[in-house]
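New to this. Help decode both lines:
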Amino acid sequence: MDRRIKELLNYGAALLEENKSLTPRLDAEVLMAFLLNKERSFLFMYPDNELDDSIIKAYLSLINERKNGKPIAYITSHQEFMGIDFYVNEHVLIPRPDTEILVESILKTVNKESSLNILDLGCGSGAIAVSLAYYLPKAFIYGVDIEPDALLISEKNAKKQGLDYRMKFILGNLFEPLTHNIKFDVIVSNPPYIPTQEIEKLQVEVSNYEPRAALDGGIDGLDFYRKIISEAPKYIRDGGYLFLEIGYDQASDISDLMSENKSYTETEVIKDLAGLDRVIRAQVQMRDER
């Protein structure tokens, strides 16, 4: 086998293409750069560098993992989100670009210089919570998750960014570990919202590798929305906000759930860059308006 970087990249990309990878060349390059601990630009600058047998063997092993459907982020343990590098593994959902719309919507709504209390329900990798702490320098962020392994990853990512002094991660199911005397300016969640029967129809890298508990929203995908929408007003300050990421076809149903709860006002659906419904923002009414 040719030992040069460019030929190994060609070989790796061809193997991935045979397996119908959506981005075979990119995946081959990312895995090579990860293995060599270099930027991808290194591969283009030194395409004729030869690699030793141990590196070649390790590279082909990574290509095989990817060929079998394992997501790049789980292979490399890294995923960028909001311009921040996050550690991830199979215990947490991989942060996605679409979820940046959720974070950006909060940043556009709140006063960035205010001392805000924010709660992230189902914090997973901590991508949302850590990003908010990163871009809101006076905010204190709480993260709740039912999975202990997920909380460890959230804490790891908070410490990695030096933000753990303004963050607290709590083990529990949604609002259960909280007391009613704590109030938040913002509650945010990207809850599981895939209908149970739809999970097996997703891409293999999602259905076979990402944690099902972070995907499964029940029979109609709305189980967690019902709980969050019902309970959130007890924990949001008057005039505060609830932000929820939603599936592309769920805006109407979730808006109806909010309309049924008289605590919310000014409900707005926010679209992603593809023009699909992605986020719902709702404000909790002032007490004297109820």
